[in-house]
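Reading a protein record of the kind used here takes little practice once its layout is understood. The fold follows as a row of integers, each naming the local backbone shape at the matching residue. With these conventions in mind, the following record can be read line by line:

_____
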Amino acid sequence: MSILNSVLLTLFKIDTIVAFNNKYRQSDPITMSSEIRTQLEILRRGFDSERYPSVAVRRSRIKRLRQLLLDNENRLLTALSEDYGYRSPKQSAFADITTTIKSANHALKHLNFWMQSERRSTDLSLRLSGASSYVEYMPKGVVGILSPWNFPINLALSPMVSVLAAGNRAFLKPSEGTPATSELLQQLIADYFSPDEVTVVCGGAEIAQAFCELPFDHLIYTGGTQIAKSIMASAAQHLVPLTLELGGKSPVVIDDSANLKTAAQRVAFGKYFNAGQICIAPDYVLLPRAQVSEFTALLKQAFEARNSSAIADDHVEIINDRHASRLHHYLSTARENGAEVHEFTAEHNNASLSVVISNGNAGEIEDHEIFGPSLLVYPVDSFEECLAHINRRSPPLVTYYFGRNEKHFTLLRHATQSGALVKNDVIFQYANDDLPFGGQGESGMGRYRGEHGFKEFSNQRAIFKSGWLDVSGMVTPPYPQFFGLVNKVMRKL
């Protein structure tokens, strides 16, 4: 292909993507699906032209992603606040920008090591022949990223760090729930990446459906369980492997050995940060019945300390009226059912914290992930009751424990299941890029972040090199006289 033709093809690709992204709202579903497939084809051709990017190429892409955040932080923070009605720039800077930069830095530091082939032990009978075995981490191809609205930058770009580190091309569909942020990401990605490296498509449910039906080489979705079931059904049509980061009702077990004030402060933080709109936020608390009143009072103190006039601008709004109505409905239903409800509101902003004390009579809030600044509290009479309560539900994304009783903590480790287990803290396990992030069952499948993300988006290809001795000749007809001996020896190796 001539240089002129190459240039014209590149311009055509860019024009196709820009034209599509400018008119997606007016397109019919068939046209949308066709044009999204065109974008996918551009990415796939890019991958086909470079199936195993060098360390330098991968580092360049990760560095550009990091630079995108550093160069445009103020614009991104403004867009986030516009989408939320108000979102503290300081919270956004930490939760969406800093955490993503950390992921990029971690990948840049360790990428050389991750890309190395790993030797594997070769069976003795084969090793004696001079054979060797190892695992090589190969890029999968084009990876789709379907990201949510609660952390619309981090949960779009942090998975992308892993995708690019593994040598793939990335196709992002950000949430329609944060349109200003999504459209800005679309523009910035186009500024920092060529359309055959990374591309973005924006739009609503029809775009998302068409996106999920694409024949990706891998797809990661972060969001709710019900939508995840639909995505699995769509992905099954092309046998697309999935990473699902969901959520559920993450419990907090407060042992009678816990520092109750510390537990209250950290649980309150989990509900204050991003207004509790976090998949790993504490959802419900299990604590000794005799400590419920004191714990509720300490929660109120912690909430008031975080909402003084000096820090009135550090809160976050509920994302939209629909979610605010949903949360209000939970509280109204709980009251109607006879549950004890405490509501704490700030004088200087719209921040709030609701505490629902339930004896199994709080209604819908007990059945659904809260995803907001409300907390469900269950009084219990024994540690065993905590275990039984947790095990009646599907495994959560994370279980939190507060206390100093190692016997109880070990029992919690071995008798329950969850994506993560955290002792005497909440949420900050996510800040550790060397820990895998993900759930189990209804809270998700697969893991990413750090080396785990690199491996998640890689094909772990087994490599076997035969030795100087022909082993096959010993175990195929006509069998030699010593076949029986060889067969017996191999069973004992």
The chain is about 45% helix and 15% strand. The first strand starts at residue 118 and ends at 120. The first helix runs from residue 3 to 23.
